[in-house]
């Protein structure tokens, strides 16, 4: 019996050890003693058979060679995802916004601005997208507040339908501030448009942090949800929450209760990002790594309790990591791919005609105006490439399999790289991982999930139910 290469990590606050390999297989050992038994090939019975089936052991040189070939094929399939055109295309028709969110990542512009509109005709944008996008793709309309430009959205989709038929889906990311006409709601229903709606989990926090000078943001949010429901669009709405200090202080049960009161069963939560206005306000409404980690653990505990009570509530942000553990081959999250999904899985057309390889790159550009950040620019019917040398360097630096400290991390097969985060926070594409907020966040979530899976608090039945679409 021979041991195949594997990674291991002690699970904090337990005696257990997490092991993984390049096949994307993993297991949880009860103790360091079991780890030593694995290394010395002295495990027996069912545990030995299980680990052998997952590729941690080989019984012969032939099996060891088969493991190496399988690992190579797995990595080839993983890397080849980036050899195709981007499947996520984002467009920013305006940077203007009717909200003044305290943690705005995109450096929003005031409603009165005349300098933050995408002035090119929808047909021109559609032609550029046709040259860039994969055969099947998702069109995500971003902002600012994109619903300030409903006619542009309708016309863009119409032009793309001419070029691409029904080979793409449409998502609008919105805070639901602007009025939506009956015609626009009917169009969304006809086109089966999805909405990614901002809701900060707790009404009082939403009104305070995601405020507007024009209306009470939570009351407007409720009114707009009713309009969407009346237009038979409720099933098309997903919710995104940004966690702030006040939410952490109020506690996760408040989130679940508030969402349940509104009929929200699934929400995608995320920490405050270090872009745009959030780089300043984070000092006032942010939190320490430990505070956020403690909140996440309590939040997951509450989600588990909800499941045990027969309630239907889940957080898609947590589901992302569970999905990567149980189906790593299906990982399509741009920020968790190796190499990075930057320009390979995603592209964004900004309001100024600049094209970026990720949403984070355009956020960083808004605050720095670094001319090297755009990949290209749309001019008339032409795509004018920027100097791509730096972008090639970004992608070549984003293979976590050969990145310092990532290359020995047990979570590496289920993780990826966010080079723009490290560029913004540390000044280079790779970053020093012990100082990386990106690394801290992902490691902490996996530690919590693995601990709860190992303790039997998260069961296979829960995972199947949560990840079911």
TrEMBL record:
**Which cofactors does this gene product need?**
[4Fe-4S] cluster
Cited Pfam families? Radical_SAM
Do the record's keywords include Zinc? no
One example GO MF annotation: oxidoreductase activity
Q: Where is the Radical SAM core domain?
A: 83-309
The record's annotation in PROSITE patterns points to: RADICAL_SAM (PS51918)
Q: Which UniProt keywords apply?
A: Iron, Iron-sulfur, Metal-binding, S-adenosyl-L-methionine
Query: InterPro entries, from UniProt?
Result: Aldolase_TIM, Radical_SAM_PqqE_MftC-like, rSAM, rSAM_sf, Sulphatase_maturase_rSAM
Q: Quote the protein name from its UniProt record.
A: Radical SAM core domain-containing protein
Q: Give the organism the record lists.
A: Oceanicoccus sagamiensis
Its organism's taxonomic lineage begins at: Bacteria, Pseudomonadati, Pseudomonadota, Gammaproteobacteria, Cellvibrionales
């Amino acid at each position: 019996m021979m041991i195949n290469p594997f990674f291991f990590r002690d699970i904090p606050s337990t005696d257990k050890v997490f092991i993984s390999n390049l096949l994307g297989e993993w297991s949880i050992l009860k103790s360091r003693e079991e780890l030593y038994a694995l290394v010395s090939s002295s495990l027996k019975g069912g545990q030995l058979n299980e680990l052998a089936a997952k590729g941690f052991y080989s019984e012969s040189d032939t099996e060891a060679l088969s493991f190496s070939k399988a690992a190579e094929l797995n990595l080839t399939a993983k890397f080849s995802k980036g050899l195709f055109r981007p499947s996520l295309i984002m467009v920013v028709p305006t940077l203007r916004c009717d909200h003044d969110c305290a943690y705005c990542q995109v450096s929003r512009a005031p409603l009165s601005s005349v300098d933050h509109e995408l002035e090119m005709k929808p047909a021109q944008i559609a032609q550029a997208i046709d040259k860039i996008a994969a055969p099947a793709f998702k069109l995500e309309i971003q902002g600012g507040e994109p619903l300030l430009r409903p006619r542009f959205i309708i016309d863009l989709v119409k032009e793309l339908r001419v070029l691409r038929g029904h080979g793409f889906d449409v998502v609008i990311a919105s805070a639901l501030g602007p009025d939506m006409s009956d015609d626009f709601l009917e169009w969304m229903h006809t086109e089966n448009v999805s909405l990614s709606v901002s809701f900060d989990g707790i009404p009082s926090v939403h009104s305070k942090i995601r405020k507007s000078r024009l209306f009470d943001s939570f009351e407007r949010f409720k009114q707009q949800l009713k309009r969407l429901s009346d237009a038979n669009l409720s099933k098309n709405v997903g919710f995104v929450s940004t966690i702030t200090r006040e939410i952490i202080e109020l506690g996760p049960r408040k989130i679940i209760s508030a969402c349940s009161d509104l009929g929200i069963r699934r929400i995608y939560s995320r920490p405050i990002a270090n872009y745009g206005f959030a780089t300043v306000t984070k000092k006032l409404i942010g939190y320490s790594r430990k505070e956020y980690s403690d909140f996440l653990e309590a939040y997951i505990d509450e989600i588990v309790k909800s499941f045990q009570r027969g309630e239907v509530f889940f957080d898609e942000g947590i589901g992302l990591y569970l999905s990567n553990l149980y189906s790593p081959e299906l990982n399509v999250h741009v920020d968790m791919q190796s190499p990075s999904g930057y320009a390979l899985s995603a592209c964004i057309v900004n309001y100024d005609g600049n094209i970026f390889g990720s949403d984070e790159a355009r956020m960083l550009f808004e605050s720095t105006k670094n001319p090297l950040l755009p990949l290209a620019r749309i001019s008339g019917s032409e795509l004018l490439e920027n100097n791509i040398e730096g972008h090639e360097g970004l992608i070549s630096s984003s293979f976590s399999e050969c990145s310092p400290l990532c290359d020995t991390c047990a979570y590496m097969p289920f993780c990826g790289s966010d080079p723009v985060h490290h560029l913004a926070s540390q000044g280079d594409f790779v970053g020093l991982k012990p100082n990386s907020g990106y690394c801290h966040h992902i490691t902490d979530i996996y530690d919590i999930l693995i601990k709860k899976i190992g303790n039997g608090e998260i069961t296979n039945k829960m995972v199947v139910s949560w990840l079911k679409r």
